[in-house]
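In this supplementary section we document a worked example of the pipeline. Step one takes a protein sequence of length 927 as its only input; no multiple sequence alignment statistics are reported here. Step two produces a three-dimensional model, which step three serialises into structure tokens for compact storage. The input and output of this example are shown verbatim.
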Amino acid sequence: MQKSKPSLQTIKNIFYILMVAILGWFLCMQLFGANEQDYNTQPESTIYSGTFYWKKADDSKQKIDIPGTYDVKPGQTMVITTTLPKNYDETSLAIRSSLQDVKFYIGNKLRTQYSTKKTRMAGNNSASRYIFCPTSYKDAGKQLRIELTTYTSNYSGIVNEVYCGNQVDIWQFIYNQYGLSTYIAIFILFAGITSILFGIALRFVYHANFDMEYFGWCMVMGAVWMLGESKIRQILVPNASALASLCFVMIMLSPLPILFYADNIQNGKHRKLYQTIGCIVLINFTLCSILYLAKIKDYIETLPIGQLLLFFVFIMVLVHLCQYIHSNVKNYTDYLLLIGLFLVLICVAIESASVYFVSMVSGIFIGIGMIILLLTNIVRTIYKIQQVEEVRHQKELENVQRQIEKVTLQMMQTLSTTIEAKDEYTRGHSRRVAQYAALIAEHLGWTKDEVQNIKNCAYLHDIGKIGIPDQILNKPGNLTEEEIHLIQQHPVIGADILKDVTIIPHLVKVTRSHHENYDGTGYPDGLKGKDIPIEARIMAIADSYDAMNSKRIYRNALSFEQIHHEIENKAGTQFDPDITKIFLKLMDDGSLFSLEHETIPAHENTINKFISDVVTTIKEQEDTNQYDYLTGLPVRNIGQKLIASAMQNTDGCLIFLDMDNLKKINDIYGHKAGDRALKSLGNLLLHLPTNKIACRMGGDEFLLFLPEIRSEQAETTVSSLIQQFQEIVQSDSEIHFAALSAGMLMCTTNDTFADAYSKVDKALYYVKQNGKNNYSFYNQIHYANATTHMPDLKQVAQSLHTSGSYTGALNLEYREFTRQYEYIHQLMIRNQWNCYLVMITMETVQDTLPYIEEIEKAIDLMGKAIQENIRKVDVCTRYSAMQYLIILSQPMETQIPNIMARIFMQYYKLQDSQHFAPTYEYIVMKD
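The serialised model returned by step three reads:
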């Protein structure tokens, strides 16, 4: 069995465990392991162990302990002496100056002195530092005299440790004792600068203030304080005096970033108080600096005021933060902040006190406090970034939601507009109602959001009409009771459609109730008075006004006076009387007139155009795949749409082509031969040397449109096409039966496609009944009198009779229908029967353009109606795109109209379209 290898995540976990263990081991070794730094330098060999005497002004001597503090007045020089051992052979002596001028005398000769009187820019005292005096074995047994002078009572009489040995060893000893605080100070300085830059970057990225920036300034000032107090500062910077002065400056100015920090945490709750205290801090700093520059008082002497201010600010901020967190508890990081601030307060107190009681203070307590607060603020900053990200994410979600709502509204408005666009009389109705309703709402004192809401409701109030048949909505005559009942269902249908839409308040109520009457006689629920939602009451009068003010298919728009009178009379019955008063006032002052003639903003059409473009593009992509593989021409539905579209834009010639005898070719030579004939015709149509649109209608039928062409040119083109096709088929023995017939119509942009298609179909039929392999214009066979249809039917009968004698079973295909015709004809002659040939033609209603799918559906339904209403001995077939032929065996001629009436009644029950009007004609079958 193969063992699985550890995953990468497992290896990562092992790595982190190892790193933690190694770090722990390292820290343990540093804290509890041997101090290897002491192997080369022992403390007892570095610290001078001789006896020191204090030589007073009266030449008396006093033995003193070093280090120590003695009673010396500011400005007086304290002189200490000792005798170097006889075996003395060290190369250096050193002592730390605490704001003191220092002089080294060996054997009464000045060996080294330190004073910044000539180099410092301000102040009375030299900065604290280590003073080294070079020595050698020659100085053994000589007297060492050190003179210490300071001008401040804080450090007057202080004597620090005296070191002896190699200068490098002394520095190493000092570094081992005090280097840690310097490390901490440098780390805090780096962390503070990083925090400031990080806080500024966060502010620019998130456009919000972060605690990290102001805390970074606190860290920088604390780090400078620590570096200023560092025992090894003189090797860190060239001018240690400036660094020492900065130590005091930082103490005086440190309350400012603390105030900024606290103000940002509390979101400006105590800002005025903090501004006042900040001004006091700046005034104190200014006064102390003036005294320092004027050499009246050193910073060390005026420091207590700054320390008191710092202590006061810290305590005040701590109290304020406790109150703020107590009343606004948000997360655990607030409690961490309080703990951190409390620990920092303790550290600052220790550090401040040590300035006065310990001369060798280093600022390490400040460093510890800063590190504690740094960790606390890192956690807080991470948490705040998380909160900001959550807020930003929430805003993005809200923006997306608003965009979705906006697009949803636009889509629903577009749907409503599309429904209205089907009827030119109601186009723009919803938009106008929305404008009227919004104007009423504004005069009622509604808010901007409420006004926008009722506009949104108005855009969708009639969406239920999508469930009402167009023939009822657009019926020019009076509606029946059933139709009235059906049209009154559109508010219910609309409410059901919109029941799950929650982004528009009151939408469902308004949609359902906008046809309720104030007196309770409305529909669908018969609500009365104030039970009707006020939005619906507003919608009712706005909707009715636009209906009366607009032209309808059954009437013209009413006049202003008629509308005014109607609305005034319906106050209290159909309309809310209070709203009616407002509306009549708007009519009288011309406000409604201004709205009616307002230009529609371009952006309101953007979504409609977008949807139209998208759908068009999708359809075009679909259409590219809907070409007949054999001929390379568009298939029927695509071709008819292209031709219909072209006919709306330009005049031209519509041509219906039929390949004759294709079935005979298929029966005798097979379908490959028939396909070859079809491919040849398709190739001719594709390469016609003129502008054209052609498609294959199916089987042996083709449709061709020649735009912007005269009748003579069209005739020449078709004649040439028939001749070229004859040349092609005559050269192929298998398809030489094929011939080409064409029906033609010169049409204009006023002609509908359905009407033109019907006419070219009749022209083609005329050609086929007169010898085929020819063409004819529709106007050559069109007669004004309906009785002239009789010769056409006689020609059909003659064509059927002369099509040849056939035997076989019954078949309703047209090719087999000729056999059946001949069979019945022979029976009729033999038995002296009376049989009739009937032609049913589907005429299109004037000024209508039904879709091809509607035409096919109507033809199929007519075929079904015929089959259900003729006898089993009767035979029918589809003769052309819009015609059926029926053979009625031995009926009484007086019964033929009744038979046709039954067929047409059955058709009307099956068909709901009003685009077609079937007609019929008949003749008796004779020789």
